[in-house]
Amino acid sequence: MKDVANFRNYLFEVINDNNLNVYVDEILEAFSLYELPKDKTFVEVGEICKHFCFVESGILQHSITVKDEDKTTYLALKNSCTTSLKSFLKQTPSSKNIKALSKCQLKVVKTHDFQKLMQSNIAFKQFYYNLIENQIFLIDDYRLDLLTLQPEDRYKKLLINEPDLLNEVPLHYLASFLGISKRHMSRIRKNVK
Question: What is the mean pLDDT of residues 28-33?
Fold first, then answer.
């Protein structure tokens, strides 16, 4: 997603229906500012996720632990929304950790207020539908890339689509996200310019 000035602009962009703009102020009122320092968790495995959020600045890493090794499953960047969705919606323990890789400024909404918006605000319903649909497209693309592209090609695609990540995210997190060993990632970086 291109750079947007703030959450309001992001909502307009995702909703993509000028007839629904009158409902945006109610959405904005339900969200509050939340600052998350670097290396602090948004949610940990076993906790119930209490918030859905928009990332105004910073990066949130989603991870799971496999054989005592952290595996990055997703990186929520500036101008994106994220949560531990099943935990948040079903109020069940999270199966993943979400932590700040850098200082984050988030706009968050609690479960009760989220549900209230879903029931009464047509623009928020449209926003959520469009958001989930776009996330499914991204997940599909990511899974296909893992199955069809060689590690070097996945890295090249990342360079094209998210060039800032190389400066913002430590290499071992990117390697994990791309399904590449740290050692192999170092070799790829030397060969690809």
Answer: 96
